[in-house]
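If you are new to this repository, start here. Below is one unmodified record pulled from the training split, so you can see the exact layout before writing a loader.
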Amino acid sequence: MKKDRMSLSLLALYKETFISSIECLEEIGRKLVAYSERENKHLSLLILDIDNLRGINKKFGYEKGNEVLITLADSMEESLRKSDIAGKYEGGSFLVILPNTDISGALKVEERIRKTFNDKIKEKKDFKDENITFSAAIASFPEHGDTFDEILNNAFSCLKKESTVDLSCTKETPIIYNSNKVVICNLMKKNKFSIGISDLVKAMEDKRLFPVFQKIVDFKTKKIYGYEVLMRLISESGEIIPAYVFIDLIYSSNIIYAFEEYVIDMAIKKIRNLDITPRPKLFINMPLRIVNIFKKNKKRMKCILEDMVNYQDVVFEISERKEKEPLESIGYLVNELKSLGFGIALDDFGTENSSFQKLNIIKPDIVKLDKFFLREGKDMLLWLAEGLKSSGYKILVEGVETEEDAKYMEEIQPDFVQGFYYGRPVEDF
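And here is the target side for that same chain:
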């Protein structure tokens, strides 16, 4: 029996654990939450916990208890996407990390797993007449926490108290499938809005979509070098709607062209009112999809750009994120902007689609290093900064938020810095 138990445990290790250790699973979760924050994306955690596993072990033996766990693992394996991360967590529970997935998406994943599990468990001869179920809890970023650990703790808290808490459809919502309970955490930190294209168009018409400005500081002189233009949206009831709710909608739709014109116009009107000499630079994100405007209607784009105060006062940020444009298109766009006298910054360098080939094609005036490095990779930040500076590039470090971050900049010696330590985004200068 002992030999059989050991053999089954080894099989369970293979089948139950998709990530080799809890520590590794948690570290992946922390990095994915940091990534989701940077990308303004949702992320959901799904905890699945076998109900009354102790009773199953006592009635049928540990081998059969392991068989239930393996059945749930198999059900997860068949139901998850390749991009999802899963692993055995503790006791009779599994943790699933669902990148780019909101609460409604997580519910659909849970439903697939539940249906597959119920079908499989009914095929087991020993459990044919038994009510073998699991409970589930869902917590999401950014609604239920700013960090992976906070979101995970909230999910476990919901799961543990599910049998005693008074649940309502507007807060902690139980969904019963047979005997399976799904609990969505009620620790909502941020408002959830449903935004469509028509809402965004109306917001622009009503001037409820407006720019805010975050300082970019010259590290050596500690003086303001420029401002990055960010956007804020106010609902008709006066609530601030976070950018992650609407930015992807804008970037994936044809409204992006009107949006860029709107942003540029609003930002320039603000900067014109500044009685400052020299005038600070204005950093404006320029999605690569705008390359199509240059190709199809240069005259229209030039009219927009020529309304700016002074070309040398504007730096366009070419983002590394979510771009699928070929390198030749990137080079075309950058050359057009440079020919008009604009500065160029390469945003998010060192993450996602970064490449030195792209760096060489763009030849930016400034390379912006994402805040990911300060949070997750300080050693890489030092190495990357030294390499870029030795190649003649000016560097800007984003995400400087604490006194510790600011002190570390003394070692990095960047040309420019940006982050909450130097000031949060403001509507008026």
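Two things worth knowing about this chain: The chain has a mean pLDDT of 77. The two ends are 75 Å apart (CA to CA).
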